[in-house]
Write a structure and sequence with these properties.
- The structure holds 2 protein chains of 2 kinds.
- Chain A contains 24 helices and 12 strands.
- Chain A is an alpha/beta fold.
- Chain A folds into 2 domains: 346 residues, ABC transporter type 1, transmembrane domain (ABC transporter transmembrane region fold); 241 residues, P-loop containing nucleotide triphosphate hydrolases (Rossmann fold).
- Chain A starts with 8 loop residues before the first helix and ends in a 7-residue tail after the last helix.
- By secondary structure, chain B is an alpha/beta fold.
- In chain B, helix 17 links the parallel strand 9 and strand 10.
- In chain B, helix 1 packs across helix 10, helix 2 packs antiparallel against helix 9 and helix 3 packs antiparallel against helix 5.
- The radius of gyration of chain B is 35 Å and the shape is elongated.
- Classes of the chains: A alpha/beta, B alpha/beta.
- At the A-B interface, helix 1, helix 3, helix 4, helix 5 and helix 6 of A face helix 2, helix 3, helix 4, helix 5 and helix 6 of B.
Chain lengths: 628, 578
C-alpha cells in the first residue's frame, strides 16, 4: 500500500490542508449567518422599545410588564432601545459570509480535484502491480485458477477499490473535520448544549462500528461470489458450443441462478446492514435536536443565552447530522472497498516463479547466440505435480546442435511436460537441463527462452490483425520479414481470401479463421522469431497433410543451423528426424532413427503399426519402408 | 433513456414493494418536515412566550416522531435493499439467459470479455445506483421537495430567490450529466478492453513468455490502464467541481435569504419566526440535497451501463425456433444437405456453395478437405449453429430450421474440434451428456474412448478434479474425455469435428474400433485429416474451397478425385502413395 502512495505525500498533505480549510470556512459561514440573525433580532427588539430610554430602563419596564424572558433577551443581546435593524452592519456580516462560503467552495473543489488525481493514480499503480504480477506468476497458477476469477479481481474488485478510494477517505476526512469543527463551535456557543450533543457521539460511533463489522463479512462474501460468478460466465462462454449442443442450457441457467441467488443474498445482507446506519444516525440526530430545543428554550427564557445563539446552535446541530450521516455511508463504502482490496492483495501475494540463482551471470555470457544451433541435454530429469505421481522420471535425452529430435509416445506419456520443462515453464524437481553445457539453473528464464521458439497445440492469438499476430514473433521485425514468414508458413495462401487480408481483425475466439489456419499463423510467428532451438508440439495436427508437407519443406530450410524438437502423432511428420525418442510413463524407453526403432520391434513399432490398423491394411502394409 | 426502460421493466414484478417503499418514504418525509416545524413552534409559542410546559410537550412529540421515523426508515431500507438486489440478480440472469440464446458467432461479435463485463460489472453499477435510488435519493427528493414547499410557505416573499437558486442548481446538474455520461461510457468500454487484455495475458501466458513478450503485454496493458485512468480522471474531476459548487450555491442562497429576509423582517413584512422556520427548511433542503447529490453522481455510470446491458438483452439471436416446431417422426440420425450454401454477410466468397449429400443411419461419412475448406462450418450447419443462406439442411427428415434447437441437439452427440472441459470433476463433465448416467455407464464410455487407464490413475478416479478448459490433463486425454462424453449421449447422430488430432495413431485406432461397435445403427459425421480415419468411413465427401470436389468410396476417389489424392498423399506410406 505504501508503494502505491509513493510520490503522493505532498498532494495528500495538500488535500488534508484544503479539506481542513474548507471545513473551517463551512463552519465559520454559519456562525456569521448566526450573528447576522442576531443583528436582525436586536434591531427588531430595539425598534419595539421606546427610544430615548437606556437599556436598564427598558429591561426594568419589561420586567414590570411581566415579560421577564423578553427582558432577559434585551439585557443579554445588547439591544439599543428605539434603534431599528442596523442594515449596514447586516450587509457587512453577510458580505463576509459570502466571501467565506465562496472560499470554502473553491477549497473544496481543490481538495476534490487533487483527491481524484491521487485516487486514479493509486488505482493505476495497483493495476500495474497486478499486471506485473501476472507476468511473474508461475504458469501453474493460470493452469489451476479459473480465468474469470482472476479477471474479476482485476476488473470488478479494482473497480470497487476505485470507488472506495474516491468516495471514501477524502470525504471521510471532510466529514470528520466538519464534525470536530462544528462541535468546537457548539462548545464555544454553549458548553452545556454542546455537552448534551456530544453525549450522543460515542453512541453513534459504537453503532457504526458494530454495523460496519457485520456488513464487512457480507461484503467479503459478496465480492468472492462475484468473482466466482464471473468465472462461471467466462467459462460458459468459452465452451458455448458444448453448452448448446449438449442441451445444457437449463442446467447452466440453474447453476447460474443458484450462484446468483447466493450473490443476491450476500449483497442484500451487506447493503441492509450498511443501510441501517443512516436511520440510526438520523435518530440520534433527532434526539439531539429535541434535547437542544428543550434545553435551549429554557436557557433563552432564563436569559442565560441569546435567542440568536440558540438559533445558531440549532442550525449547527442540524448541520451536525449531515456529516455524521455521511461518515456512516463512507465507512460502509470503505468496508466494501477493503473486501475487494483484500482480494487484489491476495493475488499480489501469490507465490511467484522462483528467480534464477544467477541473474545472467558469467555463464550466460558464455552462451553464443544461435551459431549452428544449440546443444540441449536433459540429464536424469524428473518432475512431478503431486508428490506421489511422477510425470517425468529420470529422463535423459541429448539434442545435438542442428539436429531434429522427435519425441513420440502414447497420449499422456509426458511429451507436453517435456516441452514445459524445456521452455522452463516448469522447473525440474530432479536432474538438470543443460543448454550448451550450461545448467538452466545458472540462467535466467529470459536467457533460456530467448534461445527457443515454439508452436504449441493450443494456438493462442490475441485480438488484433493477422499482421500483428505474426509480428508478435519478434520485436522490431520489418514488414518484409513478416511477409516472408507468412509465405513460408502458407498463411499467405488463405489471407488473400479474407476481406481485409493481413489487416483482418481477429478476436480471441478467432471465429473468422479455422483451427488449421490458426496453427499456420502460430507457425509463421515462430518462423519470424528465428530461434536457435525450435519446439513444435503437435503444431500441425489440424492442418491438412498437403499444407503440412509444404510447411515441412519450409521448415527443412529453417532447420539449418537450428536444433528442433518435434512432437507429432503423424509418424510421417517425424520419420525424417535425426533422433526419435520414444517416451512412456515419463521415461525414454527407446531412442534411435526411424529405421533403427522399427527394427527393434518395440513400442515405436507398435505405435507405427497402430497407424496401419485400417480396413485397407493391404494398402498400408504394402509400404516398402522409406525410400528416401 | 435506456436506464429508465431497463429499470422499469425489471422493477415491474416488485410493484407492491415499491408502493410500500413509496408510502414509507412519504411518511419519513412528513416526519422529517414536521420536526423543524415543531422546532419553529417551540421558539414562537414556547421560548418567545415563555411557556415551559409547551416546550416539554413539543419536545416529547418530537422524540416520538423521530422514533417512529427510525423504525419506518429501517423497514424501508430493508425492503429497498431486497428490491435492488433482486433486480440486480434478475438482470444478471436475463443477460446470461440471452447470451445462451446466441450462437457462437453472435457471442464473438460482442466478444467474451465484453459479455463478461456486461453480465457482472455493468449490472453491478446499475444495482448500486438502484439501491441508492430507492433508499437515499427517493427520500431526499421527497423530503427535500417537501422542505422546499414548506420554506416557500413560510416565506412566499422569498420564493423568487429560491426559484433562481433552483434554476442554477438544475443547470449545474444538466451540465454535469452532459459532461460525465460520455466519460463514464468510455470508462465502461475501457473496462471491456482491460478485461480483454488481461484475459489475453492469462490465456496466452505460455506464448507471451515463450516469445519473451511480457514487456509487450505489459505495454498493451499499460496503454489500456492509462486510458482508463484518463477517462476516470476526466469524469471524477468533473464531479470535483459539482459538489462544492452545489454546496456553495446553497450556502450563498442562504446568505441572500438572510439578507432579503432580514430586510423583510425589519420592514415588518415578515415575522421573525417565519424567517427562522424558513431558514430551517432551507437547511433541510441543503441536507437532503447533499445526500441526493452523492447518489446522483452514480447516475452517469449507471446510465452508461444500462445501455450496455440493454444491448445484450435486446440482441436478437439470428436463429430462432419456429413458433410451431416440427418434431421428426423418428430419430434415425439421417442428415441431408440439399443444394446448401453459406456465406457470412458482407463477405465476398461463400464459405460453402451448392452442397448436396446425405448421411444415412448406420453409416459413417467422413468430410475431408484442406485447411479452411469449410469442414467445421458444414458441421455447424447440421447443428444449426448457423443457418444456410440457401438450400436446406435436414436432420431426421425435417429441415433443421423447422425444429426446436433443443430438440435437435437432444438427438446429436458432438465432439468439437477443441476439446473443452468444464471446471469440476471427470464425472461431472461426462454427465453433461446424460445427467442420470450411472458410474458403470461412465466407465463404459471411458472404455470406448480408451480413457479408463488414465482416469483410474487420476486421484479420485471419476471424482478427480478437472480445471477450467481441462488444463490439468494432456491434449490427448482431453480429447478422449470429450469423446467419452459424446459416447455417453447415445444418440442417433454423432458429429466428430477432427477430434482425434491429439491422439496417437494406435490409440486412435482403438478408439475408432470401439466407437464402431458403440455407434452401430447411428449416423456418424466426421471431419478429419487422417488417412486411417478417412478410409474407415463408408462415404467420403471431399471439400475444396467450399464446394464438393468428390464424393464416394476411397477407391473411386483415389481414381477420380485429384484433391482427394493430394489430401492422402504421403499418409499412406511413401511408397503406396506414389
Amino acid at each position: 500500500m505504501r508503494a502505491l502512495l509513493a510520490g503522493e505525500r505532498l498532494r495528500l498533505v495538500l488535500v488534508a490542508w484544503f479539506g481542513a480549510a474548507s471545513v473551517a470556512c463551512l463552519v465559520a459561514g454559519p456562525i456569521l449567518l448566526g450573528s447576522a440573525t442576531d443583528v436582525l433580532f436586536r434591531g427588531l427588539l430595539g425598534s419595539e422599545l421606546q427610544a430615548g430610554q437606556t437599556r436598564a430602563q427598558a429591561v426594568a419596564a419589561l420586567r414590570a410588564q411581566g415579560r421577564g424572558h423578553l427582558a432577559g433577551m434585551v439585557s443579554t443581546m445588547g439591544v439599543v432601545p428605539g434603534e431599528g435593524v442596523d442594515v449596514g452592519r447586516l450587509g457587512r456580516v453577510l458580505a463576509l459570509a459570502t466571501a467565506v462560503f465562496l472560499l470554502g467552495a473553491v477549497l473544496g473543489w481543490a481538495q476534490n480535484h487533487l483527491m481524484a488525481g491521487i485516487a486514479m493514480r493509486v488505482v493505476y499503480r495497483l493495476r500495474e502491480a497486478v499486471a506485473a504480477k501476472l507476468n511473474r506468476l508461475p504458469l501453474r497458477f493460470f493452469d489451476t485458477h479459473p480465468h474469470g476469477e482472476i479477471l474479476s479481481r482485476v476488473t470488478n474488485d479494482i473497480d470497487n477499490v476505485t470507488t472506495a478510494l474516491q468516495e471514501g477517505p477524502s470525504p471521510l476526512l471532510t466529514s470528520v473535520l466538519t464534525v470536530v469543527g462544528l462541535l468546537g463551535v457548539m462548545f464555544w456557543l454553549s458548553p452545556l448544549l454542546a455537552a448534551a450533543s456530544a453525549v450522543s457521539i460515542p453512541v453513534v460511533i459504537a453503532a457504526l462500528l458494530v454495523l460496519a463489522r457485520r456488513s464487512a463479512t457480507w461484503f467479503a462474501r459478496q465480492w468472492d461470489l462475484t468473482g466466482r460468478l464471473n468465472a462461471m460466465v467466462e467459462e460458459g462462454h468459452t465452451g458455448h458450443a458444448l453448452v448448446l449442443a449438449f442441451g445444457r442450457r437449463p442446467a447452466r441457467l440453474a447453476e447460474f441462478a443458484r450462484r446468483n441467488d447466493e450473490l443476491r443474498e450476500a449483497g442484500f445482507r451487506g447493503q441492509y446492514l450498511a443501510g441501517l446506519s443512516l436511520p440510526a444516525v438520523l435518530f440520534v440526530g433527532n434526539l439531539n435536536y429535541v434535547v437542544i430545543a428543550v434545553l435551549g428554550g429554557y436557557q433563552v427564557s432564563t436569559g442565560v443565552i441569546s435567542l440568536g445563539a440558540v438559533q445558531a446552535f440549532i442550525q449547527f446541530a442540524r448541520r451536525f447530522t449531515l456529516p455524521v450521516a455521511q461518515v456512516a455511508g463512507q465507512v460502509n463504502l470503505i468496508q466494501s472497498g477493503r473486501a475487494s482490496a483484500a482480494r487484489v492483495f491476495e493475488l499480489l501475494d501469490a507465490e511467484e516463479e522462483p528467480q534464477a540463482l544467477a541473474e545472467g551471470g558469467p555463464a550466460a555470457d558464455a552462451l553464443p547466440r544461435s551459431a549452428g544451433g544449440h546443444r540441449v541435454e536433459l540429464r536424469k530429469v524428473s518432475f512431478r505435480f503431486l508428490p506421489d505421481r511422477p510425470l517425468i522420471e529420470d529422463l535423459s535425452l541429448v539434442a545435438e546442435p542442428g539436429r531434429t529430435v522427435a519425441i513420440v509416445g502414447p497420449t499422456g506419456a509426458g511429451k507436453t511436460t517435456v516441452v514445459n520443462l524445456l521452455m522452463r515453464f516448469y522447473e525440474v524437481d530432479g536432474g538438470s537441463i543443460l543448454l550448451d553445457g550450461v545448467d538452466y539453473r545458472e540462467l535466467t528464464r529470459e536467457q533460456v527462452r530467448s534461445r527457443f521458439g515454439m508452436v504449441l497445440q493450443d494456438t493462442w492469438l490475441f485480438a488484433g490483425t493477422i499482421r500483428e499476430n505474426i509480428a508478435y514473433g519478434r520485436e522490431g521485425a520489418t514488414a518484409e520479414e513478416v511477409l516472408a514468414a507468412a509465405r513460408a508458413a502458407h498463411v499467405d495462401d488463405f489471407v488473400g481470401s479474407l476481406p481485409d487480408g493481413y489487416d483482418t481483425l481477429l478476436d480471441e475466439e478467432a471465429s473468422v479463421i479455422s483451427t488449421g489456419q490458426r496453427q499456420l499463423l502460430t507457425i509463421a510467428r515462430a518462423f519470424l522469431a528465428d530461434p536457435g532451438v525450435l519446439i513444435l508440439d503437435e503444431a500441425t495436427s489440424s492442418v491438412d497433410v498437403r499444407t503440412e508437407a509444404m510447411i515441412r519443406d519450409a521448415m527443412e530450410k529453417l532447420r539449418d543451423g537450428r536444433t528442433s524438437f518435434v512432437i507429432a502423432h503423424r509418424l510421417a511428420t517425424v520419420r525424417d528426424a535425426d533422433l526419435i525418442a520414444v517416451i512412456d510413463a515419463g521415461r525414454v524407453v527407446e531412442q534411435g532413427t526411424h529405421d533403427e526403432l522399427l527394427a527393434q520391434k518395440g513400442l515405436y513399432h507398435r505405435l507405427h503399426a497402430g497407424q496401419a490398423a485400417t480396413p485397407n491394411d493391404a494398402l498400408v502394409s504394402a509400404e516398402p519402408g522409406p525410400s528416401n | 433513456m435506456a436506464v429508465v426502460r431497463l429499470l422499469s421493466g425489471f422493477l415491474r414484478p416488485h410493484a407492491r414493494s415499491l408502493a410500500v417503499i413509496a408510502v414509507l418514504t412519504a411518511v419519513q418525509a412528513v416526519g422529517n418536515l414536521y420536526l423543524p416545524s415543531l422546532n419553529a413552534r417551540i421558539i414562537d409559542d414556547g421560548v418567545l412566550v415563555g411557556d415551559s410546559g409547551y416546550i416539554w410537550r413539543a419536545g416529547a412529540a418530537m422524540l416520538g416522531v423521530s422514533l417512529v421515523l427510525s423504525v419506518v426508515a429501517l423497514i424501508a431500507v430493508r425492503l429497498a435493499s431486497r428490491v435492488a438486489m433482486a433486480v440486480g440478480a434478475s438482470m444478471r440472469e436475463a443477460v446470461y439467459r440471452r447470451t445462451l440464446d446466441l450462437s457462437e458467432q453472435e457471442l464473438g461479435r460482442f466478444g467474451v470479455p465484453s459479455l463478461v463485463t456486461r453480465n457482472v460489472n455493468d449490472v453491478q453499477q446499475v444495482q448500486v445506483f438502484l439501491q441508492m435510488l430507492l433508499t437515499l435519493l427517493l427520500m431526499s427528493v421527497v423530503t427535500g421537495g417537501g422542505a422546499l414547499v414548506m420554506a416557500v410557505y413560510y416565506g412566499p416573499q422569498l420564493s423568487l430567490l429560491v426559484a433562481a437558486a433552483l434554476l442554477v442548481m438544475a443547470v449545474i446538474m444538466v451540465v454535469m450529466l452532459a459532461v460525465v455520461v460520455p466519460a463514464f461510457r468510455s470508462v465502461q468500454e475501457r473496462i471491456d478492453r482491460l478485461n480483454r487484455v488481461v484475459r489475453e495475458q492469462v490465456t496466452g501466458a505460455r506464448v507471451i513468455r515463450a516469445f519473451l513478450r511480457t514487456g509487450d503485454a505489459a505495454a498493451r496493458y499499460r496503454e489500456v490502464n492509462a486510458d482508463i485512468t484518463r477517462a476516470g480522471l476526466r469524469a471524477n474531476r468533473a464531479f470535483a467541481v459539482v459538489l462544492p459548487a452545489l454546496l456553495g450555491l446553497v450556502n450563498l442562497s442562504n446568505v441572500g435569504l438572510t439578507w432579503f429576509g432580514g430586510r423583510l423582517v425589519g420592514d415588518h413584512r415578515m415575522t421573525f419566526g417565519s424567517l427562522t422556520a424558513f431558514q430551517v427548511y432551507i437547511l433541510q433542503v441543503l441536507l437532503y440535497m447533499g445526500i441526493g447529490v452523492s447518489v446522483v453522481i452514480l447516475l452517469p455510470r449507471a446510465v452508461a451501463s444500462a445501455e450496455r446491458i440493454s444491448e445484450v438483452v435486446d440482441a436478437r439471436p439470428g436463429s430462432v425456433d419456429p413458433a410451431r416446431p416440427t418434431v421428426p417422426q423418428e430419430r434415425t440420425g439421417a442428415v441431408e444437405f440439399r443444394d446448401v450454401s453459406f456465406g457470412y454477410p458482407g463477405s465476398r466468397r461463400p464459405v460453402l456453395a451448392g452442397l448436396t449429400f446425405t448421411v444415412g443411419p448406420g453409416r459413417t461419412t467422413a468430410v475431408v478437405g484442406g485447411t479452411g475448406s469449410g469442414k467445421t462450418t458444414l458441421l455447424h450447419l447440421v447443428l444449426r449453429f448457423c443457418e444456410a443462406t440457401d438450400g436446406t439442411v435436414a436432420v431426421d427428415g425435417v429441415d433443421v430450421r423447422q425444429q426446436a434447437a433443443e430438440q435437435l441437439w437432444a438427438g446429436i452427440a458432438l465432439v468439437p474440434q477443441t476439446a473443452f472441459l468444464f471446471a469440476g470433476t471427470v464425472a461431472e463433465n461426462l454427465r453433461m451428456a446424460r445427467p442420470g448416467a450411472t458410474d458403470k455407464e461412465l466407465w463404459h464410455a471411458l472404455e470406448v474412448a480408451q480413457a479408463v487407464e488414465f482416469v483410474a490413475a487420476m486421484p479420485g478416479g471419476l471424482d478427480a478434479p478437472v480445471e477450467q478448459g481441462g488444463r490439468n490433463v494432456s491434449g490427448g486425454q482431453r480429447q478422449r474425455l470429450a469423446i467419452a462424453r459424446a459416447v455417453l449421449r447415445r444418440s442417433s447422430l454423432y458429429v466428430f469435428d477432427d477430434c482425434f488430432s491429439a491422439l496417437d495413431p494406435a490409440t486412435e485406432a482403438r478408439v475408432r474400433a470401439a466407437l464402431r461397435a458403440e455407434t452401430e445403427g447411428a449416423a456418424v459425421l466426421i471431419t478429419t485429416q487422417r488417412a486411417a480415419t478417412i478410409m474407415a468411413a463408408d462415404d467420403i465427401i471431399v471439400l475444396d474451397r467450399g464446394a464438393v470436389a468428390g464424393q464416394g468410396g476411397h477407391d473411386r476417389l483415389m481414381a477420380e478425385c485429384a484433391p482427394y489424392r493430394e489430401i492422402l498423399a504421403g499418409q499412406l506410406g511413401v511408397g503406396a502413395a506414389l
